[in-house]
Design goal:
2 helices; 31% strand; mainly beta; 10 strands; 157 residues; seven-stranded mixed beta sheet; Metal Binding Protein, Guanine Nucleotide Exchange Factor, Chain A
Length: 157
Amino acid sequence: MTLSGGCQCGAVRFRITGPIRHTSLCHCRMCQKAYAAPFAVTASVAMADVEWTRGERKRFQSSNAIARGFCGECGTPLSFEPATGGKNIALSICALDDPDALSPQRQSDVEARVAWLHGIEALPVPSAEEIAAQAAKYGPRISYQHPDHDTETWPPR
C-alpha cells in the first residue's frame, strides 16, 4: 500500500511506501496541544518507509524523548518521532490525502481525554435548509489549501 499526504499549504509532502505498523489515537495533553484538538490520530511506520517528496518539516522537541514535525509555513502537524535515533515515525492520519484509508486501532492516555468528548455524536447538526441559508449568506467557499493528491508544483502558477 502506498499512501501520500502533506500539509495544508502544500509546502511539505510525504509518501508512505511500506507497511503500517499500527494506528493510534492519543489523548495525552502534549498531543492535545500539538494538534490543538482533543486527540492526535497517527499511523506508525518505519522511517525507512517514508519519503519526504516536497519540502522539509520543522521539528519541535516536546519532551526529552519526542519531537513533533510540522509545516513551518502553515503549521500543520505532521509527525510524532523520536527526538534522536529511533526506527519508527508516527504520521498524522488526517494529513493523508485520504484520511479514511486508515482508522485507529487503539487509543492511549485515556485518563487525559477531554470530558466533553463523550457524547459528541449526539450534538445537533444543521438541517439542509440551514446549510443552504448559510451558503446563501456567505457565498461559495474558495479553498486555498493544497488538493488531496500529489502535484508537480505548488502553488499553481
